[in-house]
Amino acid sequence: MPSLIFRTHLKTSPTRFKSTPFRLANSGVFKRLPRFIFSLMLAVSLPSLAQSPSDFNQALDLLRQGSIQDREAAIEQLAIEPQSLNLLQALQDGKLFELKAEAKLVIAQESNAGYQLSDALSSAALGEVDRSAVSKINLNNKLRGNLRKLIGQLQLNANDADVRLTAVKAISKEADNKVLALLRQRLSIETAPTVKQAIEQILLLQDMDSADKAVRIDAINQLKSHDSQDVVNRLQAMTEQNSDGEFQEADSDIRNLAAAALSNIQARIQAYAAIETVFFGLSLGAVLVLSAIGLAITFGVMGIINMAHGELMMLGAYSTYVMQQLLPNHLGLALIISIPVAFLVSALVGVAIERGIIRFLYGRPLETLLATFGVSLFLQQTVRSIFSPLNRSVATPSWLSGSWQINDFLSLTWNRFYILVFCLLVFTALLQILKRTKLGLEVRAVAQNRGMARAMGIPTAKVDAMTFGLGSGIAGVAGVALSQITNVGPNLGQAYIVDSFMVVVFGGVGNLFGTLVAGFTLGIANKFLEPYAGAVLAKILVLVFIILFIQKRPRGLFPQKGRAAEA
Amino acid sequence: MKLSNPLRKLALTTALSSLLLTGSAFAEDTIKVGVLHSLSGTMAISETTLKDTMLMLIDEQNKKGGLLGKKLEAVVVDPASNWPLFAEKARELLTKDKVASIFGCWTSVSRKSVLPVVEELNGLLFYPVQYEGEESSKNVFYTGAAPNQQAIPAVDYLMNDLKVQRWVLAGTDYVYPRTTNKILEAYLKSKGVPAKDIMINYTPFGHSDWQSIVSDIKKFGSAGKKTAVVSTINGDANIPFYKELGNQGVSAEQIPVIAFSVGEEELSGMDTKPLVGHLAAWNYFMSVDSTKNAAFINQWKDYIKNPKRVTNDPMEAHYIGFNMWVKAVEKAGTTDPDAVQKAIIGVEYPNLTGGTSKMLPNHHISKPVLIGEIQGDGQFVTVWQTNKLVDGDAWSDFLPESKPIIADWTAPISCGNFNTKTKKCSGQNYK
What is the pTM of this model? Predict the structure, then answer.
């Protein structure tokens, strides 16, 4: 192993500090003299001023031009001034840029032509510039961590309770005396219960180090009811032995109390973990149901083994991509519009496949399988030729990202939550179409007895095309949902085709409810197995289970009964 | 010789004919170079770019007057991400087309499939992708990173600079992640990391449901010690993984993920918001500021006629490998494989990051190691790099069974796996 030595990127020299006034005069700040003087006056007029304005400007300069290490010092310096909150937040969000021509910091918002600029300190609009006119102020993880803390300190007295809560959480790690004093001060005037609780918890954790035993016991008793990872870690540390076999916590009363409190919290953690696993299972199940439900129509009701089903989903996902390209500034809207668009695109392709290929192959399952497999390869390569073999980036709108943080141990991700809801909506809609519309009636009639249906005057050929189109359209809609959780690329379909067949066969061919129950059952089973068996083995176990199940009940969970079953 | 016509691409994928693009009429006056990259199937996403890179390099060499007074001619075949087909196509290239050397393969399993063919027919294969090591063939030149040029420095960086104490080794379930993680586990343990602070997790190819695993990582990482994920997760599975990390609120500051398979090309297909701040270890970044790199990027954008296309690490590996081969052929005065094998050892060529890479006697090359943080625009900012080039080590020093093994293709050893203890040269199987 050759030796690895950290190479520092120290580009700044000490002379830069000394020459700052000249640099300012030479640079574009001079052109903005009125504003410069104004901010200077503003700074001077502030009574709480702890530093001279030239320090502040030096820090700004350092942030703009310095190395990563210089920036660290610069943000510390800037954070003393409450007026830099806006600037620091922009830095954290990656929106702080250097306007090259004027050598100054600006906040830039992406727009169609380039960037919409505003002043970093005063937020005054500065017009629009080309992309090449600005360059971004880069950060690394250490800086981001520091920034989060500094912003937290500045935001501790913000008006919005949610902002205060984030601020409290940001500064809670490695809280020093200065931070604790700030927190105590805030607690005395805090009104929002969530923020109050968060601050109290930090202070209680501090109390555990107290010299007074009664204070410590009181702190543990109070913390027992808090669902917090910090509390668990702290209590855990108290009950652990070090390498010499000595307990970290010398006092056995406190230790036993801590152990009892820990088991109290851990019982709750287990309950949360079970809820979480069920949610994971349901959301995996929702994805399975969504991808299988279209197949439940084409395979289940019509009996066509459609190997191109996955590619129809892929087309739906690409429709989402295209819609987002057409509406780059309305990602959420584009996603919603792409639901009907994907339905139409996939349905049309489906009808074309049915009219062009499958209708000549009714009653010949093996040939249908081969032909549709060919279609799937054809569709994949078409997409590869049009969109390139690379994956396409489909953005997630903000309301679909993030999670609903119930406490430290339980959080439900929004995208999965919405997909679960979406899955149930699609299922209900499909059920209503089959039950209440004329098409649905005809579909069911043809599925039950083709000859009789034709005798009754139902145009079976047209119904076949419509049914296949419906199933394909649903696959396209599933593709829209998949675009939010997985890659949009030519291989998207292949990843889901086996799962889809698995769900339909397990649920019972020709039964929509079977598909629903089967999808959720397999999802939950998979998620309960995963922690014990690992992702690879869990999947194998589920497949083995299905093979055994099909041996026992070849017609799946909910077999069709009556005359239709024999047809 | 461009594949701009989509119909041609379609025709290629049928994989019926490997000779679509070769003009057999000129066969006598040219030196043929085989390009063995998947243009269809799962791996097309990564390998198509390398095929285009090779065509660009060959094109450029021809503009410079070719090689040994002859023009170079690319023979492009499509092994369609099908591992046995790689062997068949390699055989076809060597026996039917009589190519002077082959540039190709991406996955380790495809290289392992081609290996017996190039050894049997005495061909030359330049392999441009980072891999798990534990191999050195007389006929293969490894221009990608060995574990000591990527994984080990990455772990060192996390341990020394980020003070990481708990480790999640997450990978896709196949040979590269399994071997790399075996080496890393041994390395971490040698550094005094207890077994309970290492979590190893494997997932199937293209895994898309990361909920439970990310939740486990979150729990593992919230025990109060700084935690990092070392990811050998392959290609497609990465996007859902990072998305899930973002959604469950795991930020790069709390639990950084360092990836060995996520480069600029992969990032161009991702919504990079949830990835910002996560790390990657490579030997090349597109963002590296050097005149050679700027020229290469411009050349690539001009060639591919798309100003948005990016460059990545395996492209640089092909760039170095191809130019080293050219130099070796010029030095030997012939394309004869035996002569080129002798001539290429010790050949130096400037890489794109400002250093000069050298072909070592073990058929690996020396490279710098760079660690970068992912930025919102899909590029990396270098946060750490080795102060000099690192020599590729074929046999890991951290696995007890391969510790005494070395590879040296110069006399007197001339062996890919020479046991320094028993002084014996065994075949591919060193045990």
Answer: 0.77
Residue identified by tokens 């399952």 is A365
Stated length of chain B: 431
Measured CA distances, B36 to A477, B44, B47, B116, B122 (Å): 38, 12, 9, 15, 16
Q: CB contact, 8 Å: A536 with chain B?
A: yes
Whether the per-residue pLDDT at A444 is higher than 80: the answer is: yes
**pLDDT tens digits, A263-282:** 888 899 899 989 999 999 99
Q: Which residues of B1-24 are buried (b: 16+ CB within 10 A; e: fewer)?
A: eebeeeeebeebbebeebeebbee
List, as one string, the DSSP characters of A183-195. Answer: HHHHHHH---HHH
Structure tokens at B275: 């990835």
- List all residues of chain A from 385 to 404 with a beta carbon under 8 Å from chain B: 385-386, 388-396, 401-403
Instruction: Tell me the chain A residues in contact with residue B156 when contact means C-beta distances shorter than 8 Å.
Output: 4
Which of A291, A390, A483, A540 best tests the B interface by mutation, with the highest count of B CBs <10 A? A390
Q: Is the dihedral of CA A109, A144, B374, B204 positive or negative?
A: negative
d(CA B93, CA B73): 13
Containing A107, the helix (H) or strand (E) segment is strand A104-110
In chain A, the largest separation of any two C-alpha atoms, in whole Å, equals: 97
Pick from A4, A229, A395: CB nearest B271: A395
| B410/A159: higher pLDDT | B410
pLDDT digits (tens, 9 = 90+) for B307-332: 888 999 999 999 999 999 999 999 99
CA nearest A417 in B: which residue? B247
Instruction: Provide the percentage of residues in chain B whose pLDDT is more than 90.
Output: 58
Per-residue pLDDT tens over the stretch B128-164: 999 988 899 999 999 999 999 999 999 999 999 888 9
Reported ipTM: the value is 0.72
Domain ranges (residues) in chain A: 15-144, 156-250, 274-397+411-430+481-566
Structural domains of chain B sorted by starting position, each given as residue range(s) with its CATH number in brackets: 6-145+290-367 (3.40.50.2300), 148-288+370-391 (3.40.50.2300)
Do A487 and B269 lie within an 8 Å CB cutoff?
yes
Q: Quick one: residue A412, left, alpha or beta (phi over 0 = left, psi -120 to 50 = alpha)?
A: beta
